[in-house]
Design brief:
With 200 residues, this protein is mainly alpha-helical. The protein is built from eleven helices and no strands. Helix 4 packs antiparallel against helix 5 and helix 8 runs antiparallel to helix 9.
Length: 200
Amino acid sequence: MQTLLLLIAAYFIGNLSPAFILGKVAANIDIREYGSGNAGTTNVMRVMGAKAGVFVLLADVMKGVAAVWIGRTFGGETIAVLCGFLAVIGHNWPILLKFKGGKGAATTMGVALMIHAPFALICIGLAGVIIVLTKYVSLASIIGIPIWTTLLWLGGSESSHVLLGTALSILVLYRHRSNIQRIINGSENRVDIKKKLDRS
């Protein structure tokens, strides 16, 4: 019963949407009705400004951190892995928001930091370089998370961690499939974070 409660808690932690909440509180809007329609960092940044986007990014990261911490503290490592995965599922498909959530990259980042922080930090650094060079935020997620998984595998991490990384990589590629197509077509939107911060 305790395991089931932990897994349910992790899913509902993922359901908490700072993008949706901030949109309602700060601007009285449903962020999913603006921009790309995504309840995540990049869309908030485009619609509400970079500072709002940074807030959402950090809050979404903390969801992943919290879910893994709860699972690890009260259920052990296998439960921590499952809780991390379910937090991302809850973010992507939140029942509280009629299953219309975000794309899971920031929450995955939080999970990654709790599972293997050094590899996660390497990939976050790489993601930053990709964003600076290409201005494609989506590309940073598409590349960064699978590389984290590859590092787990090459580094000899336990099988549950590698399986989690594989599952999260599949999820991020699936959720970004339209972005991938737009990148191939050359029509993906670019984001200059520095300029947006200067204007916020």
